[in-house]
Amino acid sequence: MITDLELIEARARLSAEEQISLEDLESKEWLESLEYVLRTAGRDRVVALVEALERYAYKHGVMLPYKLRTPYINTIPADHEPPYPGDLELEQRIANILRWNTIAIVQQANKKAEGIGGHIATYASIAELMEVGFNHFFRGPDAGMDRDLVFYQGHMSPGIYARSFLEGRFSEDDLAKFRRDLTPGPGRVVTSYPHPWLMPDYWEFPTVSMGLGPLQAIYQARFMRYLEDRGLKPRSDAKVWAFLGDGEQDEVETLGALRVAATEELDNLIFVINANLQRLDGPVRGNSKVIQELESVYRGNGWNVIKVVWGSAWDELLAKDTEGVLLERFEQLVDGESQRYAAYGAKELREKFFNTPQLKAMIEGYTDEELEILTLSRGGHDKKKVYAAYKAATEHRGSPTVIIARTVKGYGLGPTAQAKNVAHQVKKLTLEDLREARDFLGIPVSDEDLEKTPFYHPGPDSPEVQYMLERRKALGGLIPERRVKAAPLNTPDASFFEEFYAGSGGREISTTMAFVRMLTKLVRHPEVGKFIVPIVPDEARTFGMEGVISSVGIYSPKGQLYEPVDAGTVTVYRESKSGQLLQEGINEAGAMASFIAAGTAYAHYGIPTIPFYIYYSMFGLQRVGDLAWAAADQRTKGFLLGATAGRTTLNGEGLQHEDGHSHVQALPIPNLLAYDPAFAYELAVILEDGMRRMYKEGEDIFYYLTLMNENYPQPPMPEPREQTREGILKGLYLFKKSELKRPKARVQLLGSGTILNEVIKAAEVLEGYGVAADVWSVTSYKALYYDAIETARRNRLNPQGIASATGKAASPTAKPEKPYAAQMLDPTEGPIIAASDYMKALPDLISGYLERPIHSLGTDGFGRSDTREALRDFFEVDAKYISAAALSALKDEGKLSAKAVSEAFKKLGIETDREAPHKR
After folding, report:
1. How is residue 480 annotated by DSSP?
2. Reported confidence tier of residue 50, pLDDT bands at 50, 70, 90
3. Tell me, what's the pLDDT at 660?
4. Fewer CB atoms inside 10 A, N or C side of the chain?
5. How many other C-beta atoms are found inside a 10 Å radius of the C-beta of residue 134?
6. C-alpha torsion 334→399→215→621, nearest 10
7. Which residues contact 801 (CB under 8 A, 6 or more apart)?
8. Model-level pTM?
9. 803 to 38, 787, 792, 794, 817: CA distances (angstroms)
10. What is the largest CA-CA distance in the chain?
């Protein structure tokens, strides 16, 4: 048998010519063999063979170069494109009409209100990408569970309105109110960007805060699979489509979850990147090629990548390129150069692109008109190329797909906007631009009417409109449409939470632990249990949720392919294809996107899932605040639970982990209700009422609740319960009235969350000084604040009394209405001292609405790592500082002498000369 060494030596003895001849023969035999397999067994078999060869080579020490980039041409060759199923000419006519009406919407708006804004260049670049989808792929709401979810690129919203106008959904009066949400008169609200809050029957997803659309799309696709694997939704072929900008890929949120989509094999997810090579100020990658860069990123993250680079006008040249000179020139291109060809046309292309003798020979005989076509012939504007890509994407299995389509920003908009750096900011076109756009788009508008930029509608019975409507009917109805169809849930009533109203019987537990017990009970509820979606970002054990993991399981589309190390224990780490808990890893943004997906399933699928997302409170609203706004905009329902909350309750973790401001950050979001419950019964009341309001009565609200990790006895709910319940929900109730006989003075102590325990201790301290202290629990300063500003507004707008606003006769002596906080506190006696584990700004919110001021104690400043006692002393929110604040306020009112208060300070150990906590 001849050895490998002998073979190598024999080959080395061949002459140079013989070696070349042998290599040519080897290459020919390998390629012919591969061609045979391709022709007889197809591409999948070729892939399998190449992979087998690669494994063999690697096993024998041959390291093949790993390439994430393919040549700068279309992924799908022209001879592999399927037949186009539609009327190309008619569809192009429709796209051009939509382009014109997009111009008209924005141009008219800015003539009526200078600077109102709007964007036309984005839709001009994406029209064909959208129209192929609308006419052949996007399934509408009448397709049932097969309906697709579409995330529209935010800046192209006028183009979507233009389509709805042709479909008969919008009138000219509607379009005339673009970006004029508050303008009176005929017409509906037509918002600047996709905003479900303002257009609740139209838009589904807010996308213009760039980066949040792609992130949410990934988790929507994942949640679709979750619903199917848990049996809550029938299996379907529904897709999630997300249309994104190439500049948007710079956002970390855009690319941050790509691995999740690939790992979970989300082949129901399709990204379409509108690569018009420009962002807001100029080229996305002027010195390189963004399409090639993105191909590497997505391919490296396990995505199926389809590039749509060149239009059909290039097919002939590519077929003639037997020597590869055109391919080589494509590789030399940078995006800044490509932008110039689209902006300056045939002359620039002839002189600078076809810049070698071989390239010049390829276009010999080409007219300027033919070269002009080449400058704009990009794949994203070629419906045949786009259709081939979409069809391949929808048929692909095993991984998500990204289609990267090369387009021209401002396509067809004339010399001012087309491919120019200013394209994104152009709101008005000059007469010359309008004339060129009209002629390029073939719109029958006279020169005399150009200045008005009128809308163009070919008529409801026109071939264009009839074609659009027929195609949408075949695909399941008109979109976008937000259709809420979830039936009300019979949510648990107060009796379900009775054990939590009764207290812990002297046993010390935290409110976090109380919540986990409530959650464990809720998932077993016969009606709502299956709809509960617990979400946690790799902190379940921190929050004491091991039991939840073992009982309901962690969702994994692959099930559990291993035996966990803690198998056989009661807290086994159990993954399951039908698991109920979403364990998102160290990924707060992803967990928030899952919260949004679960909290909007009632609208997208008619399935009223109830998300409970529990996390470190410091890494919630502070970290994903923009996603919280997106949740609010799309009418998400559910509970955000900021655990280990407060600046002084998470001892030992230090500056970064201690939250004293999340309740302040919850203030700006109008439909987010924020509560800081101190006791289990308060939490139970809020959960019961919240589920009823959201899932039984259909209110578009969601909740932020803070939970503590400090253990203390949970008291029973004070009687009368109904009165206490009302106060908990409104934000304030009397927890305990002082029983001190014949006191020297009286104070009102307000406490929130775990600091309520310090307030209770302070009340006992003050009684030692002869001061009666009534203790109030403040469950929600935000609720009190909103009630106060609403009451103040009613009083301000009704000078003759509130009764006049209802049409009743107002009394001449009618007094202004009082907010709830004032109704509770104004009749009381003595100074009001409020202490919480949050910034002083929180209780200060209601101070101006009472007859006397609130003296606020809070935790302004950086956190520290130490014991709770030390932290509360540092921030001056412990019992002694609460007592000192009360005594000082009584001194100011003349109820106590300065000497007596000074002596009390010494006894209490108050440091009067140390610097304020927020400066330390």
Report:
1. S
2. confident
3. 92
4. N
5. 24
6. -140
7. 810, 811, 814, 815, 816
8. 0.93
9. 84, 18, 15, 10, 10
10. 118
Q: What is the pLDDT of residue 415?
A: 82
Give dist(CA 131, CA 647) in Å, integer.
Answer: 53
- Helix/strand/coil (H/E/C) assignment for every residue in 736-801: ECCCCCCCCEEEEEEECCCHHHHHHHHHHHHHCCCEEEEEEEECCHHHHHHHHHHHHHHHHHCCCC
- Say whether the peptide bond before residue 480 is cis (omega within 30 degrees of 0): yes
Choose between 868 and 424: higher pLDDT. Answer: 868
Specify whether the CB–CB gap between 403 and 259 falls below 8 A.
no
- Across 525-535, average pLDDT: 97
Residues 628, 669: contact at Cβ < 8 Å? yes
User: Is 200:482 a contact under the CB 8 Å cutoff?
Assistant: yes
Helices H, strands E: what count in the chain? 38, 20
Beta-bridge partners for 891:
none
CB 379 within 8 A of CB 385: yes
Q: What is the percent of the chain with per-residue pLDDT over 90, rounded to a whole number?
A: 81
- At 130, the pLDDT band (50, 70, 90 cuts) reads very high
At 220, list the tokens.
Answer: 């929507």
Pairing of strands 672-675, 712-713: unpaired
What are the structure tokens assigned to 631, written together? Answer: 């949740």
DSSP state of 111: H
Asked whether the beta carbons of 134 and 471 are under 8 A apart, the reply is: yes
Sequence letter at residue 13 = R
CA distance 904 to 405: 75
Tokens 């440091």 belong to 911
CB-CB contact of 881 with 873 (8 Å): yes
- For the chain, the first-to-last Cα distance in angstroms comes to 83
What average pLDDT does the structure give for the chain? 93
Tokens of 387: 């259709």
Judged on CB neighbours under 10 Å (0-12, 13-18, 19+), 49 is middle
The encoded tokens of residue 250 equal: 């710079």
Residue 10 has a pLDDT of 83
Convert the pLDDT of each residue in 834-892 to its tens digit. 999 999 999 999 999 999 999 999 999 998 999 999 999 999 999 999 999 999 999 99
Q: Residue 757: CB partners within 8 Å, gap ≥ 6? A: 678, 712, 751
- For residue 178, how many C-alpha atoms fall within 13 Å in the half-sphere facing its CB? 35
pLDDT above 90 (res 656):
no
- Environment class of 240 (CB within 10 Å of its CB; exposed 0-12, middle 13-18, buried 19+): buried
Chain centroid to CA 482: 17
Element (H, E) at 900: helix 898-908
The token duo for 409 is 């920003």
d(Cα 282, Cα 121) in Å, to the nearest integer? 13
Q: What's the pLDDT score for residue 589?
A: 94
**673 pairs with which residues across the strands?**
703
Instruction: Enumerate residues 6+ apart whose C-beta is below 8 A from 262.
Output: 301, 302, 303, 399, 400
Looking at residue 808, its pLDDT comes to: 59
- Partnered with residue 245 across adjacent β-strands are 274
CA 715 vs CA 20, 43, 498, 504: distances in Å: 90, 70, 13, 7
Q: How far is Cα 740 from Cα 756, in angstroms, rounded to an integer?
A: 20
Q: What is the 3-state secondary structure (H, E, C) of 9-53?
A: HHHHCCCHHHHHHHHHHHHHHHHHHHHHHHHHHCHHHHHHHHHHH
Cis amide leading into 720 (omega within 30): yes
Amino acid at position 145, single letter? M
Helix (H) or strand (E) holding 629: helix 625-633
Strand-pairing partners, residue 732, are: 778
Q: How confident is the model at residue 813 (pLDDT cuts 50, 70, 90)?
A: low
